Amino acid sequence: MPPFKTLEELRQAGVENQLGFLTTSFSHMARQYLLNQLQQRGQDAGLKIDELPVMARLFEQPGLPQAELNRLTFKDKATVTRLLAALEKKQLIIRRIDEEDRRARKIYLSPQGEQLIRNFVPIAQTMQQTLFEGIPESDIQTTQRIMKLLYQRIAEQTERNQT
Description:
- The model has no long low-confidence stretch (mean pLDDT about 90).
- A 3-stranded antiparallel beta sheet has the order 1-3-2.
- The chain is built from 7 helices and 3 strands; from the N terminus they run αααβααββαα.
- The protein has about 160 residues and is mainly α.
């Protein structure tokens, strides 16, 4: 898609047709759907939509230091600190002193946090099956490959701009 020469061209094309708007909206709607499904089952543990990416990263990489969590979630230090405090209050995470650097702490899912993820996975799998129904596997793979490439590029740009 060529860049717009004027704001009027963007207006005519429709903001909702822009990749950034589509991906952000899809991500938000998918997370909200998953949380609603957990809430309906009484399995949400009070989790908020902004906390879900933090939980996912800690499931994926137990023992992350907060600085790495900041980077992986593209959130600033204050936001991640606030999210971690809320997750700790809900007993979904545990902070442990890093044995190599006693000033730092590593963050893990608590047993309750791990259970929340176990509850979450089948709901996510069902949602994915429903969404992908009727879409050729090759289209799904192409979309995933392109989204990963775009993610890597924006991550690199973000890292460069922060240094």
